[in-house]
């Protein structure tokens, strides 16, 4: 149940950011839900592999290379989901950072309600 609630909150965040950012587009709320699921799958499977193989670069850049990995994950979601589009690497970076912040806020509210 908790996983479904987090997916719905992520879909709301994706839909909200797509309506605010001009370089990001989502066709419908169902597309936003699919993007949230695809991002969860990519973050669970692909991101740890990318982090492992780029660990030396990540250490040298003091963790800033993780932003590049987040951009790659967003662009992969753009490739896999037909109703989702991100125009360029800069918009993927902005979308990634804002999505992380918005998800942290929404998940924090969810945790506060739990207590």
Automatic annotation (TrEMBL):
The domain of life for this entry's organism is Bacteria
* Annotated transmembrane regions: 32-50, 57-77, 89-110
- Keyword terms, alphabetized: Membrane, Transmembrane, Transmembrane helix
The protein's name: Phage holin family protein
**Can you name the source organism?**
Aquimarina addita
Taxonomic lineage from the root:
Bacteria, Pseudomonadati, Bacteroidota, Flavobacteriia, Flavobacteriales
């Amino acid at each position: 149940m908790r996983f479904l609630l987090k997916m719905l909150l992520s879909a709301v965040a994706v839909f909200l950011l797509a309506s605010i950012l001009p370089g990001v587009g989502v066709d419908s709320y169902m597309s936003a839900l699919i993007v949230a699921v695809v991002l969860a799958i990519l973050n669970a499977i692909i991101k740890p592999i990318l982090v492992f193989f780029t660990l030396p670069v990540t250490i040298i850049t003091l963790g800033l290379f993780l932003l590049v990995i987040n951009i790659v994950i967003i662009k992969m979601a753009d490739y896999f989901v037909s109703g989702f589009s991100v125009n360029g690497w800069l918009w993927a970076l902005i979308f990634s950072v804002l999505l992380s912040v918005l998800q942290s806020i929404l998940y924090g509210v969810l945790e506060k309600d739990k207590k």
